[in-house]
Amino acid sequence: EFKVKKKGNFDYKSNHDVTITTKQQYLPPFKQMIARREQELRNTKPVDPLDGNYLKQVYPVHTHNPDK
């Protein structure tokens, strides 16, 4: 059985010393964070119009639970 820890650290030493720290986040604040970041990227205009928009496409995650 897979159990999520409330907090975790992942260290990658292959090319660069990178540490990724994770923590548990409940679904409503996570959805809000994603929606705010998506809106921020939609509103950001590039310096050169040839570069296009920052947010190219959104890929929704399909789940069996409609609340998630």
Please give a structural write-up.
The chain is of the alpha+beta class. The two termini are about 20 Å apart. A hairpin with a 5-residue loop joins strand 1 and strand 2 (about 20-25). It has a domain at about 5-45. The mean pLDDT is about 80. Helix content is about 25%, strand content about 20%.
Oligomer: single chain
- Overall pLDDT score: 78
Radius of gyration: 17 Å
Major sheet size, sense and barrel closure: 2 strands, antiparallel
Order of helices and strands: EEH
What sort of overall outline do the alpha carbons produce when their principal axes are compared?
Answer: flat
Side by side, the strands of the main sheet go 1-2
**Cα separation of the termini:** 21 Å
List low-confidence stretches.
Answer: none
The helical percent reads 25-40%
**Percentage of β-strand residues:** 15-25%
The number of helical elements comes to 1
Number of strands: 2
Sheet/helix structural class:
alpha+beta
